[in-house]
Design brief:
Oligomer: single chain
Helix content: 25-40%
Shape: globular
Bound molecules: alpha-D-galactopyranose
Mean pLDDT: 97
Distance between the termini: 35 Å
């Protein structure tokens, strides 16, 4: 499909929120808009959950309230990111068609009363959703407030995997397209195992709950199917809009570590602007590292272009077991971390805190306490800072390091029967990214097989599933002079989840110069010691170096004597291999050594608690901007010269960034080396 991307002009760095005026009467709308203006809000997402308001009964539309709110926003110059309203079905629809309700893995239905209560493959849901989309697009497609279309909402957040009979039919059609005949499917799924061979398409089911573990290749394809099915729905709504409106179209991704159901690499090209929702999750290790990773991955999905942070929170969320409030200054630091890493807009969920419904304890820009609150003052301060960053819009982030990330590897590696349940794909990704981040290196997150020519260092954590042609992109790039670090659990299976035999590492084996014979994971509480005195956890393996130099070996544990860190000359480049999970300080020194070899440096030198200070450079046509986000409790001194857009101060050679503060320096030209 070739389609011209429509441009989303953020007009500076957009600042905004989800706005749900339907939760209040018009008596608060004037106050809402006046306060939005005070805070500098210029983009609001409305009508996200509008369906039952717009179509209270089948075919009977009521647009009066949405008309009113659109007109008020237009009159005050606030742009609208307009939802199609299809994210949550109205009660009349599920009552008429209970068969469109989604089915869980155990065969039980999920009922209305929450949201997203529909099967993604349901033709009935599709028909009604497209009818509503058409009505909304026709009515508002040329409205002066309209800036951006917001298809559905967080597509697949709750209902990505549906196991009903309608989904089963759709899954079989998807499989028939992919494999053409059943024997090819049998070969791809390895159905010779446990007497699982199929004779007819009709015998094939979604991977519903079983007594034992399920066929991993079937699970993998079900993930692919489910992601494609929802993308199909996105495309259907987007097509309806495109023929009725010129405005750019997107939906909000969930590049945050607990959602793994959609392969966003296959979605990104369909977005006129990539948009992401990000919420801190304290269950995922160091929050500032995960925050930076999610922002870098969002930029990766945007192909390096500016992207939009569609949702994050001013304070606590309400859906974690313990919902932590943000520290003083953390909102500013976190929001500007996204901007530093390429976002040209930062929006919150939501404008005014709900007083009813299951999100009434979720933070908002305008909290329950009202404007006489620290939260509101912080919001206004942030809005002011964002306004002063307008000239940054359109600039792009400099990065000389790439990290290869894959949803397919996530699906395949985290299967039901694996070498160690103690280790997940994301643990490997976060550990590698964390080491790079702590070293102050800016990282582009890229897809397997992506062009690597602009990078000096590439890190490949746990790329469990890899296609030969994608592996060749990496090994050829190394041969041409690149430096790469590949970790264990990479190159284990092909796209059918079939093991590469002859030594693990498969298509990376020769370039790495290592042949892995057996996995030997260890318990979480076991510490492994390496020959260089450093320690590691969770993983070891029995292998031998064929052509690689052994940099460190296992000094104890089940793989004593086997290589733990190796380095292999491959063509003009170097292929490093890591056969364990080093403790963080050791991981940092390893990547620091590789970065030094590859000639990669942080965007600026930092004196202070450098590992807790983000330094990222965005480069525009006329100027470059050094973002310094000091997450530390102590002041940092950064080597830079230029004008700080946040405070207006100037720096000549160095700038003190107080503990917890953010500075954005428009650099004087000679200052912007490093990356
Ligand atoms: C998601 C949704 C919002 C809201 C927030 C709460 O991002 O898109 O509607 O539920 O979560 O964190």
């Amino acid at each position: 499909m070739t389609r011209t991307r429509r441009t989303f002009d953020t007009r500076g760095i957009a600042f905004g929120c989800d706005y749900n005026p339907e939760q209040w009467g018009p008596e608060v709308w004037d106050e809402d808009i006046a306060l939005m203006i005070e805070a500098g809000v210029d983009l609001v997402a409305i009508n996200i959950f509008g369906w039952s308001h717009l179509e209270p009964h089948r075919g009977e539309y009521r647009f009066d309230r949405l008309d009113d709110i659109m007109d008020r926003l237009a009159a005050d110059g606030i742009g609208v990111n307009l939802g199609t309203g299809t994210a949550s079905t109205p009660a009349w629809l599920t009552r008429e068609h209970p068969d469109l309700l989604p089915m869980a893995v155990d065969g039980t239905r999920r009922y209305p009363g929450g949201r997203q209560a529909f099967c993604p493959s349901s033709p009935v849901y599709r028909e009604h959703a497209l009818r509503l989309t058409a009505a909304v697009a026709e009515r508002y497609g040329a409205h002066p407030a309209l800036r951006l279309w917001h298809v559905s909402n967080e597509i697949g957040c709750h209902n990505a995997l549906c196991y009903c009979d309608v989904s089963a039919d759709a899954f079989r059609r998807w499989l028939a397209d992919r494999y053409v005949d059943v024997d090819t499917l049998n070969a791809a799924w390895g159905t010779a195992f446990w007497s699982q061979s199929y004779g007819e398409w009709e015998e094939i089911l979604p991977p519903r709950a079983t007594l034992s573990s399920r066929n991993p290749a079937q699970l993998l394809d079900f993930h692919r199917f489910s992601s494609d099915e929802l993308l199909g729905h996105y495309r259907a709504e987007a097509d309806v809009i495109r023929s009725r409106s010129e405005a750019p179209i997107t939906t909000n991704f969930m590049v945050t570590a607990h959602i793994d159901n959609l392969d966003y690499w296959s979605w990104a090209a369909d977005m006129d602007v990539v948009a992401n929702d990000h919420y801190l999750d304290h269950r995922l290790g160091d929050p500032t590292t995960e925050l930076a990773f999610a922002a870098d991955l969002s930029r990766g999905l945007a192909g390096g272009d500016p992207w939009l942070l569609m949702e994050h929170s001013t304070g606590a969320v309400n859906w974690q077991p313990l919902n932590l409030a943000k520290q003083p200054g953390q909102m500013m630091r976190n929001t500007l971390t996204h901007v530093a890493r390429g976002a040209d807009g930062a929006c919150f969920f939501q404008w005014r805190a709900s007083v009813q419904g299951s999100e009434k304890f979720h933070s908002a820009m305008l909290p329950h306490a009202g404007t006489d609150s620290a939260m509101w003052r912080d919001v206004v301060e942030l809005g002011g800072a964002i306004e002063r960053l307008a000239e940054v819009a359109g600039s792009r982030v400099d990065a000389a390091v790439a990290l290869v990330f894959s949803w397919e590897s996530w699906w395949a590696a985290d299967g039901e029967s694996r070498p160690s349940q103690a280790l997940g794909y994301l643990d490997l990704v976060h550990a590698a990214y964390g080491a790079l981040h702590a070293e102050g290196l800016t990282v582009d997150v890229v897809a397997p097989g992506a062009d690597l020519s602009r990078y000096s260092l590439v890190v490949v954590p746990g790329l469990h599933l890899v296609r030969e042609q994608d592996a060749v992109v990496l090994t050829d790039w190394i041969a041409a002079g690149g430096t790469a670090l590949v970790t264990f659990s990479s190159g284990i299976v092909d796209e059918d989840d079939r093991v590469y035999v002859g030594g693990y590492g498969g298509p990376f084996r020769d370039a790495l110069g290592v042949r892995v014979e057996e996995f030997a994971p260890v318990a979480r509480e076991t510490t492994l010691t390496l020959s260089d005195g450093s320690t590691a956890t969770l993983w070891s393996e029995r292998s031998r170096a064929t052509t690689a130099e052994v940099v460190a070996s296992f000094a104890d544990g089940p793989s004593t004597g086997a290589p733990a860190i190796t380095r292999n000359r491959w063509g003009l480049g170097e292929a490093w291999y890591l056969a364990t999970l080093p403790e963080p300080a050791a991981y940092r020194s390893l990547v620091a050594r590789l970065a030094a070899d590859a000639g990669v440096r942080p965007a600026a030198e930092v004196d202070g608690d450098a590992a807790s200070v983000d330094v990222v450079r965005r480069r525009g046509a006329a100027a470059s901007y050094l973002f310094v986000v000091n997450h530390a409790l102590v002041d940092a001194t950064v080597a830079t010269s230029g004008t700080d857009l946040v405070t207006g101060a100037t720096a000549d050679g160095s700038l003190v960034v107080p503990a917890g503060a953010v500075r954005v320096v428009r650099e004087t030209p000679a200052a912007s080396t490093g990356s």
